[in-house]
Amino acid sequence: MNLFLEMLKRNRSSPDFDRAIRFSRPLNDHFGVNHFWYYRISCNGEYSYMGTNEDWNEYCFEHSLINFFPCLRHPEVLSKGISFMQASPSDINYQQVKKAAWDRFRINFNLNLYTLFSGGIEAFGFGSKFNDYQVEERLINELPLLRCFIKSFKENHKNLFYTLQDNCVDLASHMGTQFYESPQKIKIPFGRESFLNHIGHKPSLKLTAREKDLVKFLANGYPASYIRKKLHLSIRTVENYIAALKDKLNCSSKTELIEKSQSILAIGLCN
Asked: pTM of the predicted model, to two decimals?
C-alpha cells in the first residue's frame, strides 16, 4: 500500500480541500503559479502535505519521487526563511524530478517559504508555469503579496490544517538515514570574495547601521516601497542604499542580494 497516495485520498475527501483549491486560483491568474503547496514536518518525522496540482501529486507519490526532494528533511537540517528550489549540479536525482515536473506537467519549482516552530517546520511553496531565468526574481518582487496570501490562506482554512495533521505519514521511516542528512544546495558564487580568498586575503565586511537595517528587510524579501515606509526615507534614498549594498556585496541581481542578506543575518553580522 502506498501510504502517500492514501494520504492524498483522505485529504481530497474533505470539503475543506476543495475550498482551498478554489481559494488558490488567483495565484495562477496573477502570478502564473500553477502549483501551490503546503507541508509540515515534525521533529519526530511526521509529514503532512497538500498541493493544488493533483495530477502532479499523484505522479510524484506513485513514482516515489518524494525521496529525491532536498527540502524534505529533518527540521534541524533545514533553515527558516526563503529557499530557492534550483537543483544542485551534483544532485542528479532532483534534476530528474524537476525535469519530469516540467516535461509532463509544466511545473517549475521556484520558492519555499519556511517557518520553524517548536515541534518542527512548515513550508508554503510556489511552482510556476514559467521556466525562464528571471521567474524567481519576479516572485521575490511580489513576496509581500505572497506572504499576504499565506496569511489569508491560514486564516480561512483552519479546518484543513487539522485534517492534514490527522492524515500525516511517517516520513522518517520512509526515507531512513537520508531524512537526517543535510540537503545539497546551490551555492551562488560571489566573484569578489572568491578572488580575495584565493589570494589569501580575508576581508572583513563592514556595514553601517543603516545598511544593517536594510539587510534585515532585504533578507525577508521586502521591496523598496515597504522599506521606505518602515525607515521613514524617500524611495530614492532607499534605492540608492540598495544599489550601494549590491556593489559592496558584489551582487548582480535582487535575488543574489536577498540570498547574501540571508547569509549575513545567519552569521550574525547585523547584531
From this structure: 0.72
Please give, one letter per residue, the 3-state secondary structure of 153-164: HHHHCHHHHHHH
- Torsion angle of the four alpha carbons 98, 183, 83, 90, in this order, in degrees rounded to the nearest 10: -50
Cell of 178: 537520508
CB-based burial of residue 250 (10 Å sphere; 0-12 exposed, 13-18 middle, 19+ buried)? middle
Distance separating alpha carbons of residues 62 and 219, to the nearest angstrom: 37
Interval 64-119: pLDDT, tens: 999 999 999 999 888 777 888 988 888 999 999 999 999 999 999 999 999 888 88
Per DSSP, what are the bridge partners of residue 252?
none
Phi, psi of 257 (to 5 degrees): -65, -40
Nearest to 73 by CA among 114, 111, 102: 114
Per residue, what are the HEC states of the chain?
Answer: CCHHHHHHHHHHCCHHHHHHHHHCHHHHHHHCEEEEEEEEEECCCEEEEEECCHHHHHHHHHCCHHHHCCCCCCHHHCCCEEEECCCCCCCHHHHHHHHHHHHHHCCEEEEEEEEEECCEEEEEEEEECCCCCCHHHHHHHCHHHHHHHHHHHHHHCHHHHHHHHHCCEEHHHHHHHHHHCCCCCCCCCCHHHHHHHHCCCCCCCCCCHHHHHHHHHHHCCCCHHHHHHHHCCCHHHHHHHHHHHHHHCCCCCHHHHHHHHHHHHHCCCCC
Beta 169-170 vs 120-128: how paired, if at all? unpaired
Name residues whose C-beta falls within 8 Å of residue 54's C-beta, 6 or more positions apart in sequence.
8, 12
Q: Which amino acid is at 237?
A: T
Distance CA 215, CA 265 (A): 8
Task: For residues 218 and 212, give the distance between their C-alpha atoms in angstroms, rounded to a whole number.
Answer: 10
